[in-house]
Amino acid sequence: MEEVEVVVAHHECATLRVGDVFLKIDSDQTRTDVEVEAMAIAPIPTPEVLWRKPPVLALAGLPGKALGRLGEPSTASSAAWAAAGEAARTLHDAPLPPWPGWSLDELASDLDGECEWLVTNGVLPPDVVTRNRRIAEAALRPWTPVFTHGDLQITHVFVDGDEITGVIDWSGAAQGDALWDLATLTLGHEERLADLVAGYGTDVDLHVIRAWWSLRSLWAARWLIEHGFDPSSPGCEFDVLRLAI
């Protein structure tokens, strides 16, 4: 009999693995609607949808393994990172999804609220928060919207050797800034940015990518803490903030 493995679980959703099938259970079916539609129209490999019976979405597993993990060195080859960049470029060149993403005003307001929470609750030293909020400002500029994955974490990109076999977790897909995806993928892995950009195939503003590293780390910290994750683990979000210059 196949064992049930809890891949991830928190207050909003959980993912279970049973053999080669992944069962995603989400309290918000709007997120699942976005995920299913985004996978259907994305021009890069995604998991096969086996069936859906709310609140459960069943997906086939992908061959290979994740590109890496936050807080750990990535053992993937330079060619695999370049292939991830090429896949991101293919996605960003695709027609826009029909639903919008964040507005700049909403993002800036949310960010300020998260910074206030971090300082008020003594989660991070005020100087670290202030410095990174200043760095993050460079990301808060008008951008030409593209089809973004929205949460292109290193664990969401699967590779087999030097080839991309698929990208998972599309519930955050929307119209957005291409550099947000590139920054999310390289968060905590700055040494891999050159390989990713080489595969992406066009010049990118590294200053803005670094701004997105700071913004994402500030913006996500409270959610991570409240959902059982630890942004203070070595190499994770708090280290990114402390090392930002």
Please describe what this structure looks like.
With 245 residues, this protein is α+β, with helices and mostly antiparallel strands. The protein has a single domain (62-243), classed as Alpha-Beta Complex (Aminoglycoside 3'-phosphotransferase, Chain: A, domain 2). Helices cover 41% and strands 18% of the residues. It contains 8 helices and 10 strands. It has a 5-stranded antiparallel sheet. It has a 3-stranded antiparallel sheet with strand order 6-8-9, with helices on one face. A two-stranded antiparallel ribbon has the order 7-10. Strand 8 (157-160) and strand 9 form a beta hairpin. Helix 2 packs across helix 6, helix 3 (104-120) packs antiparallel against helix 4 and helix 5 crosses helix 7. The longest helix is centred in the last third of the chain and has 21 residues, at 206-226. It is globular, with a radius of gyration of 18 Å. It starts with a strand and ends with a helix.
Q: How much β-strand is present in the residues?
A: 15-25%
The strand line-up of the biggest sheet is: 1-2-3-5-4
- At the first level of CATH, the class is Alpha Beta
Structural class: alpha+beta
Count of domains: 1
Spell out the helices and strands N to C: EEEHEEEHHHEEEEHHHH
Average pLDDT value? 96
Instruction: Look at the structure and name the CATH superfamily.
Output: Aminoglycoside phosphotransferase (APH), C-terminal lobe
How many individual β-strands?
A: 10
Per CATH, which architecture? Alpha-Beta Complex
Shape, principal axes of CA atoms: globular
Q: How far apart are the first and last residues' alpha carbons, in Å? A: 52 Å
Number of helices: 8
**Fraction of helical residues:** 40-55%
Oligomer: single chain
